[in-house]
Amino acid sequence: MEVEAAKMIGAGLACIALFGVGIGIGNIFSSLISSVARNPASRGQVFGLSMLGFALVEAIGLFALLIAFLILFT
């Protein structure tokens, strides 16, 4: 197997985590909307926690993309 082909396969496998990130972000915001719809008074507490969860999930996506680029261009 050529090195370029192996790099492309490795970068593609590293990007599989991005599907999980998309699902995770969707779950976070669907839970936020559901909880605020049930109890609008708790918006302040729930919104802060959802932003923390969003930041952590997005960081995982950025790390996966960084690894894919490192595999591809080194």
UniProtKB/TrEMBL annotation:
Residues 9-71 form the V-ATPase proteolipid subunit C-like domain. The chain crosses the membrane at residues 12-34, 46-73. It comes from the Bacteria. Gene3D superfamilies: F1F0 ATP synthase subunit C. It is found in: Cell membrane; Membrane. It is a multi-pass membrane protein. The record marks 58 as: Reversibly protonated during proton transport. GO terms for cellular component: plasma membrane; proton-transporting ATP synthase complex; proton-transporting two-sector ATPase complex, proton-transporting domain. The keyword ATP-binding does not apply. GO terms for molecular function: lipid binding; proton-transporting ATP synthase activity, rotational mechanism. The keyword Transport applies. It holds the Pfam family ATP-synt_C. Keywords: ATP synthesis, Cell membrane, CF(0), Hydrogen ion transport, Ion transport, Lipid-binding, Membrane, Transmembrane, Transmembrane helix, Transport. Key component of the F(0) channel; it plays a direct role in translocation across the membrane. A homomeric c-ring of between 10-14 subunits forms the central stalk rotor element with the F(1) delta and epsilon subunits. Belongs to the ATPase C chain family. This is ATP synthase subunit c. It comes from Marivibrio halodurans. The lineage of its organism: Bacteria, Pseudomonadati, Pseudomonadota, Alphaproteobacteria, Rhodospirillales. The gene is atpE.
